[in-house]
Amino acid sequence: ELVNNFCSRELTSYEQIFEGAELAKLDKTERRYAWIKRRMRTNEEIWQIFPTSWLVPYRLCIQFCKKTRKQLEGILDNMKEKPDVATLLMALQRTLEFEDELAEKFGGGTQSREIGNEIEEIGRQSNSQSASDIRKKYEKKLAAHQVSENEEKDENKDLSAPGAGFNFHGIISSCFEPHLTVYTELEEKTLMENLEKLVQEETWDVEEGSQNNVLSSSMQLFLIIKRSLKRCSALTKSQTLYNLFKVFQRVLKAYATRLFAKLPKGGTGIVAAATGMDGQIKTSDRDQRVICYIVNSAEYCHKTSGELAESVAKIIDTQYADQVDMSEVQDEFSAVITKSLVTLVQGLETKFDAEMAAMTRVPWGTLESVGDQSGYVNGINMILSSSIPALGSLLSPIYFQFFLDKLASSVGPRFYMNIFKCKQISETGAQQMLLDTQAVKTILLEIPSLGRQTSGAAGYSKFLSREMSKAEALLKVILSPVDSVADTYRALLPEGTPMEFQRILELKGLKKSDQQSILDDFNKGSSTISQPSGAAAPGSQAMPQAPSATTVPAMSNPASAGFIASREDVLTRAAALGRGAATTGFKRFLALTEAAKDRKDGPFRKLFNA
């Protein structure tokens, strides 16, 4: 009680001085700490008359901190306008320094030494660290820990008295926390301005020989974010740091939007519609490289944003740690990756347009002999030879595999449908087209080797062969005699439709009058083969079936779909692409497997009985 009364009298003049209009200002905060330091130096010898166990300087500082906090709270609460950010941060910085000095003088814990190290780890390439680097890192951590323990022992030697372990950290500075909104607003403004500048200055190219083929704006953005995180974590690890983390989320989402916007778009408007280019994406060789850089940059951002969240979770106050999550941001970058790869495929498809058109202009009905592969096949080969090597060198194996799967699921059906766009096809013409089809399949099967990425070639080859086999089957139907064409069509293309069959008859050059009898026989045969599962009751109306979301063709041989070995393989490949990577081809396969569950036997059924 005596010591407390003494401390109160010592601080009476302090309260009077700093409650006055002249010094009761935020920009005078540093003078408060200068006053108490001067007071302690001046009275150090006088206070020696008190027993050491009374801890007079220590108790005086605690009372000083409490009174200072109360006065600063009043100043901050009574401000009519938002405080100047520079003044606010300067006052907070000086307060933190003063708290550190008190903690060092009287004990009460030390600030974490690992914060800077945690932040520095953000964005570093994991494969760039050798074993010696990792060993040095942990040796450094161990040494720092031992130094910290020794310092604590030294500090506590003379502080065995009750209350000597008081924690000065935050005793004053925590009053600034509710007023740091202006600081996070300034950080967000600065980060967004830097983002715009980085995007404007981005060359959308990567230096030759670069190991990761990532755009410089991606790496620079995370360097700026790391500096912002360092600044904030030096001031506070509470609500303000969490608010800044949410700023990081918004900035990274904005960057994902900029990457998305850079992708080539399909043609729109009257001119595009008139020229048949509506919605089609045209990509040059440079466009293809840029798309690959965007894929790699989005992957880098996906990975590094996760590391950023981990670092923030380690240094932020525990009450906020569970709320630190970057999954939404990572989903944004996954969507960019998926859209980029789909755009690559669409751009390549557009390059095939001229060759597909050339295929329909070949006089298939008047060919006299079968020769070498046609010119359009050579054109397809040239397109792939000029594009695939660059894509293979720039894309990682998992994304190149995704690209291959999308390409296979696109080119096969397109080639099949393009046959129907041709005019009459004679027997010789069908033989020539069959030769061309096999040549195209061979060219497409060489894509993994062309891209020097053969790790997933087996699955791609099976998938592509299955897709291209439909075109081969169609040509075999066209080659079949008229009297057996219906049976051949049903055998080779059991998922076919009467309309498609009629078009085949037209391709064979049959007249309308000759077609009708064959169509009648075909329709009768189809009706006897496929009866409805349940007959409607007399007088009742059958309910119309809603169209399914995904059309799944029937398969004469389910084993041919074995390009994906198991459900685990399916899930692994889908998960590796992130949440945003579910594609039409993958949905189609899922629909196929769902339909297969109802089958009583066959290889697909075994997947679900395992």
TrEMBL record:
Keywords of the record: Endosome, Golgi apparatus, Membrane
InterPro entries the record matches: Vps53 (IPR039766), Vps53_C (IPR031745), Vps53_C_sf (IPR038260), Vps53_N (IPR007234)
Biased composition (Polar residues): 524-533
Gene Ontology BP terms: retrograde transport, endosome to Golgi
Subcellular localization(s) per the UniProt record: Endosome membrane; Golgi apparatus, trans-Golgi network membrane
Domain spans labelled Vps53 N-terminal: 1-202
Domain of life per record: Eukaryota
One Gene Ontology cellular component annotation held by this UniProt entry: GARP complex
Sequence segments annotated as region (Disordered): 521-554
Topology in membrane: Peripheral membrane protein
Boundaries of every Vps53 C-terminal domain copy: 432-510
Family annotation (PANTHER family): VACUOLAR PROTEIN SORTING-ASSOCIATED PROTEIN 53 HOMOLOG (PTHR12820:SF0), VACUOLAR SORTING PROTEIN 53 (PTHR12820)
Protein family: Belongs to the VPS53 family.
Protein name, as recorded: ARABIDOPSIS THALIANA VPS53 HOMOLOG, HEAT-INTOLERANT 1
Organism, as annotated: Hibiscus trionum (Flower of an hour)
